[in-house]
Amino acid sequence: MKNVLNVVLLILLVSLILFLIPREQMDEVHEIVLPSHPGLPGNARHGEMIEHQFYTLSYSEQHEQAFWTMYRLTAENLSMPKYKRTDNFRVDTLVSTGSATKQDYKGSGFDRGHLVPAGDMSWSEVAMSESFYMSNMSTQAPGFNRGIWKRLESQVREWASANELVYVVSGPVLNDGLETIGANKVSIPRFFYKVIIDYAEPEIKSAAFVFENKKSGEDLFSFAVSIDSVERLTGLDFFPALPDGFEKSLEATSQIEAWLVGNSAESKGGN
Question: Which residues 6+ apart lie within 8 Å of 62 measured at CB?
Fold first, then answer.
């Protein structure tokens, strides 16, 4: 009987303590501690990792372009004076097997399409220059590169300005059997993707898009999808450093509505 009484008293004491703890402190107990970086994409096909000063990529020798590129973009970056485009397209000497060249694209009818946009790197002379490595280029139809892809680049800059800090992953969907251009046989992707994560409190949110490599006049946000669907399409694992439960909730469904409250650059041009 005495033991039972002791257990009851212990339960009452714990209940009293929990009741007296302020609600704010209880919420803090359940807060998720996020790593300083959400993690580079995992790639089952193991491209060559290339680290430039302002972005990282995984290079596919088979396709002569990146599986993915990743960089951070902040509101502070975008508020700084802008450097002009250098258009200094050049071989990336960090790629051990050699990257594609300008000559591969000559006369092909395709653009050297940026994966890391020059417009996102205009706040730094070095960053701008780095964005013109050929390892950052992918074979894009002119109507796609200068159209809806450019519109999305502009939208991402708008989101970065409004949300303080975003991480952006961009790339082509690379499969066997793609047509190629040039002496180095640069693949022509049929699809491209872009994945964005707002990594500044109080609201962590994500956005993801998949497009066909062709001109489109459709509404930009009609191409919004879940990160999970992009992972299935590409075989990549985005943001692997995030806690598993949090990552799952972030990637399971499209969260595009969370970005659109009072904030859209959809009709504006990009760079």
Answer: 174, 187
